[in-house]
Amino acid sequence: MYKIRTKLAAAIQPLRKQYKFQIFNVLTIRNVSALHITGDKASENYVTIQPFLDFKGTFDHAESVESSIMKRRMQMDMGQVRAMYDNYKKAILQIEKVDKERDDIAKQLKEMSKVKSVNDSAINQLKEQGKTLRNNMKAMKTELYPIEDEFIQAFLNLPNMLHPQCPDGDYERLLYRSKQQVMQRPTKSHLDFENLIRFLDNSRYYLMNEAAEFDLHCTDALTKYFLEQGKFMQTCNPDFVRCVLLEANATPLTCYHKVMEQQLQNQLNCAYLTGGGAFESFLGAVTKLVVYPSVVPLKYICSGRLYEKSNEEVKPSLYTATQTNAVQTFVATLNAQQSEEQMDAILNMCLDFYKSFENLNFRIVYVKASDLTAAESLRAQIEVYSQSERRYVCVGRVSNYTDYVSKRILFTMREQKEYKFLHLVGGPILYTSRLIAALIESGEALDCRKVQKTLQLNETSCKDSSNKPIDDFKSLFK
Predict the structure, then answer these.
(1) DSSP codes joined into one string, 118-161
(2) Is 307 helix (H, G, I), strand (E, B) or coil?
(3) 120-147 burial string, b = 16+ CB within 10 Å, else e?
(4) Among 111, 219, 413, 434, which lies 20 to 30 A Cα-Cα from 135?
(5) Which phi and psi angles does 415 have, rounded to 5°?
(6) Would you tell me how many other CB atoms lie within 10 Å of the CB of residue 350?
(7) What is the Cα–Cα distance from 40 to 443, expressed in whole angstroms?
(8) Residues 6+ apart with CB under 8 A from 232
(9) What is the distance of C-alpha 318 from the center of its chain?
């Protein structure tokens, strides 16, 4: 998020106490973003996307949104956002009223020009009124920009509504746990295996011998399984993502590294290093895309690098490394029911993959609401147990975004002259560096051929059962 300075018009003086403008002399600091650009910034930046702002749908379900804010423990006031919206609407109606008066004067001048006997003083009077209205409209628009910025930014920060399955307490909800027991005896850290790992810090490490081979082949094995078993399509995504897509996905800008560009046309829309294995790297391909029902659900998968900033307070290791190979999924569905079905199908195939490791202690949980990003309605997280750190570490996750992100990037489906926003599901289902660390500590051999063989047996068993569809993921835990 960036901040620019603009002159504060006299008309918004009464709003200083009502809204949180930060005043410095006659200047106000305004929070602005690449996702919403007002007219006064058009000379320096250009509009990349005009997101669909569903004011009616949001405020009609204000109680659900307010509940989502409370359960996520966000510092927001839905009542204040509504008050800002009312003030924003009032300013828009005033501008529209002045614009209508200008149109009426223009029509009168056009009619009077056809009559030869009209008094010139009457024409000049109308022209003066038109000039006055034009200047008034210009001043009103200037006064509107800070109000618009303040409200739209608050509106864009409103979170997605929570899925009914999302835990709203202090604990996650357990979906699955492997049969392997937690070892009570002390275990060496994966960093102690110097023949496999040379670790310098979170941004610099080297995998060697079997670890290096496994790093490459396990992503290929999982990707191939999704291509053949799940009928996904493989893509190759960019490593850099513009700020507007991160904001559209409500991704905190602190998650990725900002790229310092010398020549940047749009000063607000800078680039970030995410890697092709990031969910946001899919969004550029589907922004402003219109598809037909015959191609839905769209199912994509991509393997590539993933660069995420690590928490400096956590002990450096492969569990917190800033870069890793990853496998990323992206599915677009027609409605909420289809998105739930696709999320279960992805988790089912992930379960096949992680169960192929005999000594791996892992579980699948629904993450509590307070740990979700603003765009996520529900997140299922795959976690492995670290023997050395005595805690569960995320090695993959799948999120349900409903149509929250699609509305911001205008990803729609055309159906009988109507346009519907698609529901999105996806996430990185494998962090290879974290999986390698857990496998080394559990004593599992880094043999990807065994994993490939197990997955092939799963494919064969599905084909032998008359192409029986994947079981409902929730049925595993009844």
Answers:
(1) --HHHHHHHHHHHHHHHHHHHHHHHHHHHHHHHHHHHHHTSPPP
(2) strand
(3) eeeeeebeeebeebeeebeebbbbbbbb
(4) 111
(5) -145, 105
(6) 26
(7) 61
(8) 226, 299, 300, 301, 329
(9) 25
Q: Which residues contact 161 (CB under 8 A, 6 or more apart)?
A: 61, 64, 65, 68, 377, 402
Determine contact, residues 342/470, Cβ cutoff 8 Å.
Answer: no
Q: Position of tokens 């008034």? A: 136
pLDDT digit of tens for each residue in the chain (478 aa)? 433 333 333 333 433 333 333 322 222 334 567 787 776 666 566 667 889 999 999 999 999 999 999 999 998 899 999 999 999 999 999 988 888 888 888 888 887 777 766 677 777 888 888 888 888 888 888 888 888 888 988 999 999 999 999 998 889 999 999 876 666 666 789 999 999 999 999 889 999 999 999 998 899 999 999 999 999 999 999 999 998 999 999 998 889 999 887 777 667 788 899 999 999 999 999 999 999 888 989 999 999 999 998 876 778 999 999 999 999 999 999 999 999 999 999 999 999 999 988 888 999 999 999 999 999 999 999 999 998 888 899 999 999 999 999 999 999 998 877 889 999 999 999 999 999 999 999 888 887 777 777 777 666 555 543 333 334 444 443 3
Neighbours of 102 (CB within 10 A): 18
> Residue 94 corresponds to which tokens in the numbers above?
């005033």
Note the residue count of the chain: 478
Cβ neighbour number for residue 178 with a 10 Å cutoff: 18
